[in-house]
Amino acid sequence: MNILLLFVIIPTVMLLALWGCRNVRQTRAVMVTGSTLLLALSVYLTIDFVSLRDAGENAPMLYTASWSWYRPLNICLSIGVDGISVAMLLLSSIIVFTGTFASWRLQPMTKEFFLWYTLLSAGVYGFFISTDLFTMFMFYETALIPMYLLIGVWGSGRKEYSAMKLTLMLMGGSAFLLMGILGIYFGSGATTMNINEIAALDNIPVDMQYIFFPLTFIGFGVLGALFPFHTWSPDGHACAPTSVSMLHAGVLMKLGGYGCFRIAMYLLPEAANDLAWIFIILTTISVVYGALSAISQTDLKYINAYSSVSHCGLVLFAILMMTKTACTGAILQMLSHGLMTALFFALIGMIYGRTHTRDIRQMRGLMKIMPFLAVGYVIAGLANLGLPGFSGFIAEMTVFVGAFSVNDTFHRVVTIIACTSIVITAVYILRVVGRILYGEPENEEHKKLSDATWDERFTVICLILCVAALGIAPMWVSNLINTGVGDLLTNIVE
Fold it and tell me: Over pLDDT 90: what percentage of the chain?
């Protein structure tokens, strides 16, 4: 059996096991077992993939397989991975694993929550292993649908409004995406929906590309928080439960950047080259606007949500530069932001669970009350603003070096504008850190609060180690994704 199928089979078995659970203890046991297996599988796949590349396997996709599903429309269950997909699978597994412990004490309806959470993760895994346009779209929708219930039922604040807004906007993006996918399939005259086979044909008329590239890019860009389609993201993040925010910002938003690179630009290269400047302007606005908006917020989740808009905008910005260095930086940024934002949302959820507020104006002196959580937040903040030694520095430096290497005035000007986001990020991060670290607690009730429990400490430590590991030793990731980035760019810029 193909190893990639296990990424869908294990969540399916988890769903069946969760359905039969009779108490919280059994539910936790299933989630820990399943998420641990998925993490171990991802680590094994990464090691095996690297060894195959070192042994001389240079095919664009490894572990490929295909089974006919619906012959009249040439729909197949086609699977395969390159270095980018492997990196995304590893990221997803880390977030699912740590998210399980972050939701360890979630009440009520623990079993039902984890059922939808597992379905969401199954959609994410299926998307990253698929090489067929239709099955990618199917898994994409599978990942989106559970968000409505996870936020609407288990969220906080204006959860019904946020869940509806998120669902409607992402479904609107899906409509654009479906039109783009159908346009690619019929425009190419292909007898298959396999991405690599459509790319090899390279016969989609340029005038059709001009129509379907914007539709496809915007369809994925909505999930990637592309300006001005980003407004669902802050509200969705603010109201979602902790582990859902972790998976949503850490992995789900990466589907947008991955899809833009793998489908929109890879399959529609002429339009991508000619129309890239429009989306470069929009992504530059996303980067700066997200950072500026974060400054004006006082809610911890909204601060991190707008920060995610800025960082995900930087991913799309780097991809559109179409240089190998910038695109490598984009993938590193996906990984870095995924880990950082998961750490942020985990800590915010833990702090909120104790203080019952996310308003930074009411959090003075938390360092003296819960030092572990406060120090964890400081570390996450330093990683977010790009301190050397953490993943954020490596990712952003690679992006900006790659973007500035494009030798024309337009690209260098927008790169300089995007670079200002680093300074803006430092402002809002240090502002929050200062509130948490300094002064005496103003709320007498806060003085009675406890620090992190064992499950919370485990979650935070795991994520901090991952952020530090990527920052200290980034070359193995760069080597992992190198071939995948090169293969995609060859088709785009040739």
Answer: 4
Task: Quote the strand ranges of 164-221, DSSP E.
Answer: none
- Which contiguous run of DSSP H or E holds residue 70? strand 62-70
Per mean pLDDT, which range of 232-241, 329-338, 466-475 is the poorest?
A: 232-241
DSSP bridge pairs for 276: none
The DSSP-derived string for 344-385 is HHHHHHHHHHHHS--BGGG-TTHHHH-HHHHHHHHHHHHHHT
CA distances from 446 to 8, 350, 351, 433, 452 (A): 44, 14, 11, 17, 14
Q: Count Cβ atoms below 10 Å from residue 58 Cβ, excluding itself.
A: 10
Rounded to the nearest 5 degrees, what angle is found at the Cα of 159, between the Cα atoms of 157 and 163? 155
Which residues are CB-neighbours of 67 under 8 A, at least 6 positions away? 76, 77, 78
Whether the CB-CB separation of 261 and 146 falls below 8 Å is answered with no
Tell me the pLDDT tens digit for each residue of 432-479: 887 777 767 766 676 677 777 777 788 888 888 888 888 888 888 888
Q: Rounded CA gap, 83 and 476, in Å?
A: 11
Amino acid at 113: F
Measured distance CA(473)–CA(339) in Å, rounded: 15
Q: What would the two tokens of residue 233 be?
A: 């993201």
Supply the pTM of this predicted model. 0.90
Instruction: Assess contact for 173 and 143: CB atoms under 8 A.
Output: no
**CA pseudo-torsion sign 416, 319, 229, 100:** negative
Please list, residue by residue across 26-48, b when 16 or more beta carbons sit within 10 angstroms of its beta carbon and e when fewer do.
ebbebbeebbebbbebbeebbee
Which residues have C-beta within 8 Å of that of residue 467, sequence separation ≥ 6?
336, 339, 340, 343, 379, 380, 383, 390, 391
Query: Distances from the Cα of 483 to the Cαs of 4, 197, 395, 459, in angstroms?
Result: 19, 18, 18, 32
pLDDT surpassing 80 at residue 337: yes
Cβ 76 vs Cβ 132: under 8 Å: yes
Chain centroid offset of residue 39 CA: 17
Buried b (16+ CB within 10 A) or exposed e, 70-104: eeeebbbbbbbbbbbbbbbbbbbbbbbbbbbbbbb
Nearest to 366 by CA among 353, 355, 382: 355
List CB contacts of 168: < 8 A, sequence separation 6 or more: none
3-class DSSP string for 224-256: CCCCCCCCHHHHHHHHCCHHHHHHHHHHHCHHH
